[in-house]
Description:
Layout: H1 6-11, E1 20-21, H2 46-50, E2 58-61, E3 67-72, E4 78-85, H3 99-106, H4 118-123, E5 128-134, E6 139-146, H5 150-162, H6 170-188, H7 195-203, H8 218-223, H9 226-236, E7 242-248, H10 252-263, E8 286-292, E9 298-306, H11 313-325, H12 330-338, E10 342-351, E11 355-364, H13 370-387, H14 391-408, H15 412-426, H16 431-441, H17 444-454, E12 460-466, E13 514-517, E14 523-528, E15 534-541, H18 555-563, H19 572-582, E16 585-590, E17 595-602, H20 606-618, H21 624-641, H22 645-658, H23 674-679, H24 682-692, E18 698-704, H25 708-719, E19 744-749, E20 755-767, H26 773-784, H27 789-797, E21 805-808, E22 814-824, H28 828-845, H29 850-862, H30 864-867, H31 871-883, H32 890-899, H33 903-913, E23 920-925, H34 927-935, E24 941-944
Parallel strand pairs: 3-7, 8-12, 14-18, 19-23, 19-24
Antiparallel strand pairs: 1-16, 2-3, 4-6, 4-7, 5-6, 9-11, 9-12, 10-11, 13-14, 15-17, 15-18, 16-17, 20-22, 20-23, 21-22
Helix pairs in contact: 3-6, 5-10, 11-14, 11-17, 12-13, 13-17, 14-19, 18-24, 19-20, 20-25, 26-29, 26-33, 27-28, 28-34, 29-32
Amino acid sequence: MRRTGSLVAAAAxxxxxxxxxxxxxxxxxxxxxxxxxxxxxxxxxxxQLINEVDIPYTKFTxxxxxxxxxxxxxxxxxxxxxxxxxxxxxxxxxxxxxFAHLFEHLMFGGSENAPGSYLGRMRNLGPSNLNGTTWFDRxxxxxxxxTPALEQALFLESDRMGxxxxxxxxxxxxxxxxxxxxxxxxxxxxxxxxxxxxxxxGLFPEGHPYRHSTIGSMADxxxxxxxxxxxxxxxxxxxxxxxxxxSGDINEAEAxxxxxxxxGAIPRGPVNAPAQADVPTLAAPVKExxxxxxxxxxxxxxxxxxxxxxxxxxxxxxxxxxxGGLASSRLDNIxxxxxxxxxxxxxxxxxxxxVGMFTITADVKPGENADAVGRRLDEIVADFIRTGPTxxxxxxxxxxxxxxxxQSLEQVNGKAxxxxxxxxxxxxxxxxxxxxxxxxxxxxxxxxxxxQRWLTRPVLDITIAPGEREAYEExxxxxxxxxxxxxxxxxxxxxxxxxxxxxxxxxxxxxxxxRATLSNGIQVVYANVDTVPVTRVGIDFDAGFAADxxxxxGTQAMMIDLLDEGTTTRNANQLAEEEERLGASxxxxxxxxxxxxxxxxxxxxxxxxxxxxxxxVRNPAFAPSEVERLRAARLSGLASEKTNPxxxxxxxxxxxxxxxxxxxxxxxxxxxxxxTIGALTREELEAAHDTWIRPDNATIFVVSDLPLSQVTPQLxxxxxxxxxxxxxxxxxxxxxxxPAPTNRxxxxxxxxxxxxxxxxxxxxxxxxxxxxxxLNAANVTLGSDFLSRINSDLxxxxxxxxxxxxxxxxxxxxxxxxxxxxxxxxxxxxxxAALIAQYDRFLKxxxxxxxxxxxxxxxxxxxLAGGFETSGQILGALRSNALYNRPDxxxxxxxxxxxxxxxxxxxxxxxxxxxxxxxxxVVVGDASVVKPQLDALGIPVEVRxxxxxxx
Length: 951
């Protein structure tokens, strides 16, 4: 139930039908007066849960030193390919910061025997989980592909491991340099976005491998020359410095010849010894104050601590969870619930290979004295270090960790990651078993002693206060690395046998959907998935943010915030503690169309977990003190939204395209406005619950390893006697006309923004209950895919953005088409012009081309097995079928229906509804930089001042 404000802001950039976790802290720990005590829940012991965790594997090494791990899992006809290189940002020499991450991008630019976009070729295979990441200690690349496409995936992975450099020229380097710098701007542009640099530089001395961020500095990225970058590859990307994990529908007998065939001829590279790094201790406490355009002052405390192989790693992680990681944490109980001087707190131990960082944060409640809150924070931390946690707290952390580990193993890629991490860092793929054993056996004394060893040393104390940001380090107009003194040496290419063809990929085998009805009439929709011993339950209510009255925006969000902040038998701390004992997760959330209560739990603890879920949904207390505390937290959250570019845009666009009277014409974040939140009464919140959260407005969805015959009695025990209240069930009115579209730009001034967020679109003459298959297929080419026209132009050709998307956001009623394009500030006007040009080109003259048609159909059909691999994905499908009135076999028929589509059908579907000359463009950026660019476009521009919290 632990939630933070960042989730709401992030959700603003997602499809508006995606549930948004409410952004508040938990409720008071004290038992409410007159509150009846609930019976204690009984959880399965951690030792029993640990027995459920096993990832059998075989291991072999090729003659060139490449380590290969193979895990068999035949639940779906897919194989995860995970390639881990033993090199990360800690291995970068001075003057080359950001090179490991830059090279991650270059690895997606094509290779000698597979030129062009790597992602373009992979899209044809139908992958899921396709990406690459870089961190301090490693770089990894991964994709899950249909089994018949495995050979082609191995060819492509081996080609970029052994035969890449001939495809990396100056043009490719300069393009990806720009993309990476825009990725850096995008992160830096967020509230508190510059803290990470100050933390690393404050904790680690000059020359320490962990002192610089993985993204690197603008200056070093500017200086990256072609030959320097090529040498980085030669020194670090040899097969003897890599691990390949194949996890899924394959065995060792099949894997060994394939690995020999595609990787065996790659020559060894230099032996890479990852950088050593000690754990530094500050000579004295360091106190700094930064300023940022934020709503709340943030207090931070940081220490460098030992890395993940240390005996103290698990005790420190357990200590962090008890202190500020659990929903029932010490800091939550004291600062957020009891004293109410902070609106959000956290504590975490980020353990890397050589070192770790123990970080504590507290966001000060508006109106409170930050210095006084800081002193109180230090008192709580000092007392916790002195006394340590209780046995019961440690046990709850252990159960939560083991339960989370079990649930993470549902995907074959998740298991591949676990094996690769163990091999890379510990030389043992079974290292996860050691960690599980440590969590199961760690004692309060060990946690206390570890904290006393490491957290009594001098602290790095950084405060981020509201104010004007310090000057931002921008990239050079002409990067030094783009000007070569002499041409780079020509690469001698090595020819290989042709790339193998993809075999016949079977259609999706979607699990059978079954139904039951509880005694009170609640419908149950069920599917069986027995990959891991986990049950997921979702209760959907026909409500959502669209249920708010126009004069009471934010009611639904505040009401659902309060559901798990105390019931008539359990206060919020008791709810959190019981949830932690069970290793369960209970969340209440909302999208525009639905309010949802979700449970995820190991099946051994299903019955008591359902008891908690039912208590949260059926018996909220709405205690007056909690209403007031949540009101203050909500108001603080609204102020924070006004500092976040994504949330600013998500608040501005809906009323511009839907009109303020439409149930969809309000902020996609659902958080409402200050006037409503300030005035809502307890009685209104109770009425909202009784109007919308009720059995005659609910459907229960279940995916479990248990059969329906065993699940239904447990649901009946938890919900069968729930009766609807006497007041009428709520209804939503979509009769208000949508205003005629007017093409214009609304510029929201956000000073000191190194990047602008373009967030534009229009309401389409289509609804979520319509058949949108052809439209969405067309939009793969136009806007939704990495290889879409708009992303290929702004990111992969011009390098002005880290990523651009245009999506049909599938709501139940009239759907919007929304373009989301964060771009570098000095290219804002040109980016809008480029977007319009790409839409006009597709919609007027050059629709889906033959290669795009083939790629879309292959990608959309071949990816289905991987797209419905987990119980969570199956649960989502059941819910979307109900929301959009689709048949139970909708997913099973997707492949055949998609293969039948023609380019002409796709073009017609898009051209009938997408009208870029009707788009409203919201731009969040620095008006002093952006306004002149927008004026040159010939589109009317309205300038709005930044909200006070963002100034």
